[in-house]
Amino acid sequence: MISIGGRAIGPGHPPFVVAELSGNHNGSLERALAIVDAVAEAGAHALKLQTYTPDTLTIDCDALPFRLGDEHELWGGESLYQLFERAHTPWAWHEPIFERARERGLIPFSAPFDATAVELLEKLDAPAYKIASSEIVDLPLIRLAAGTGKPLIISTGMASVSEIEAAVSAARAAGCAQLAVLSCTASYPASPAESNLRALPLLSAITGEVVGLSDHTPGIGAALAAVALGACVIEKHVTLSRADGGVDSAFSLEPTELAALVVESARAWESLGEPVIGPRPSEREGLRFRRSLYVVRDVSAGEPVTPENVRSIRPAGGLPPDAAAVVMGRHFARDVPFGTPLTWDLI
Question: Where are the transmembrane segments (predicted)?
Answer without folding.
Answer: none
